[in-house]
Amino acid sequence: MASTTTNPASSANPAPAHSSYKPRYIDIGINLTDPVYTGLYHGTQRHPPDLPAVVSRALDAGCKKLIVTGSDMAESKKAIQLAKEYRTVLLPPRRFAGVIYTTVGVHPCSCSQFTTSLSPSTMLTELHALALRASQQGHCVAFGEIGLDYDRLSLCPKETQLQYFAAQLDIACSLSLPLFLHSRAAHVDFFRLLDARKDKLPRRGVVHSFTGTQAEMLELVAGGWYIGVNGCSLKSAENVQVVRAIPLDRLMLETDGPWCEIRASHAGAGFVKGYEEEEEGWM
């Protein structure tokens, strides 16, 4: 889903010689429904809404498709609405079609929404219907973000996460969609639940924002899964070595914006020096 010819952590060589070629990318995970894109930071309005400018800059940089993450029912619906609004984007003299797409699902840290709803089974049915309808309309391209997060059990208990990850995987088995997955400190349970359904999930999908070990990555790759990386995947020297080992045909790129950028303190920061985009000569 991300068009690139080199592994971003494969070397620290300087940028290649300038050419007229401009790569094209798909950002497989970006949170454009976040309030910061309306200028709202922690309840305070800091600037006018700038989502159109963000999308415009992405297109100018060669990122032709943006997949907005659905993290619960409400956010999934917002993402679908964005996909409808950005079905076409006009940036004279060019017109871009199908710029924003979505995922639909409930994040593991939000799975308590099922237990606090009037009817968890009804909510699951509505989630299935939402994903199916959005897929048929050409907006939803993956089911998720679903998975397990044992680093943040304060947001949702482990047993609740396990129950509704399994329930959402069962929904996925009836949809013709790849998965957009989340795993933090939960690989054994995470892979066990996926592997139990491997024959019912032929399209597989991507484990996004990957921060696991090389052994975990290789087990996922062997199972047919893709690995998504962003700044959080490049924090430590160990992270960099894991990314270096990802087979290029299983590597996907994401910003997870407005979070998970590559920061100066990250071990991966040195690998992007010299690759800053030049404004002149790229178009």
From TrEMBL:
Record-linked CDD domains: TatD_DNAse (cd01310)
Entry keyword set: Hydrolase, Metal-binding, Nuclease
Binding locations of a divalent metal cation 2: H182, H208
Positions contributing to a divalent metal cation 1 binding: E145, D256
GO MF annotation list: 3'-5'-DNA exonuclease activity; metal ion binding
Keyword Acetylation: no
InterPro entries tied to this protein: DNase_TatD-rel_CS (IPR018228), Metal_Hydrolase (IPR032466), TatD-like (IPR001130), TatD-type_Hydrolase (IPR050891)
Keyword Hydrolase: yes
GO cellular component labels: cytosol
Family: Belongs to the metallo-dependent hydrolases superfamily. TatD-type hydrolase family.
Protein name: Deoxyribonuclease Tat-D
Organism, as annotated: Lachnellula occidentalis
